[in-house]
Amino acid sequence: MVKLITIFLAALLVVGSQSLNIGKVGGYTDHPELIENSNIKALVKYAAEYLTSTDNLILDEIKITRVQTQLVNGINYKLEFTAQSVNGHNKLTTCEAVIYERFDSTRKITSAQCN
């Protein structure tokens, strides 16, 4: 019974990923069409808030430059963005964040950094 449920869920995941056009299982896929997506903007804001709390880095004028997705047991979003570092003399900085989002919309930042 467990095997049958596992096979069904795996098939559902593959079919669902194709209908959502999220990408293939395994590697990252570029999605330039998602740069203006409201969910992606919310994820970048979440990453910026994380960087404020962990690195004391206050970011303003955020611009998303690249969106990639990886289908796992949920979706990894690899987001690249530029921003002005308010506490760094308004210096332009480039950031990358990887955010894991489960299918129940639970989010977790797996990495985030700025140069």
TrEMBL record:
The Gene Ontology terms for molecular function here are: cysteine-type endopeptidase inhibitor activity
Q: Where is the signal peptide?
A: 1-19
Q: Which residues form the Cystatin domain?
A: 36-96
Q: Which domain of life is it from?
A: Eukaryota
Keywords of this entry: Signal
Query: What is the designated name of this protein?
Result: Cystatin domain-containing protein
Organism placement in taxonomy: Eukaryota, Metazoa, Spiralia, Gnathifera, Rotifera
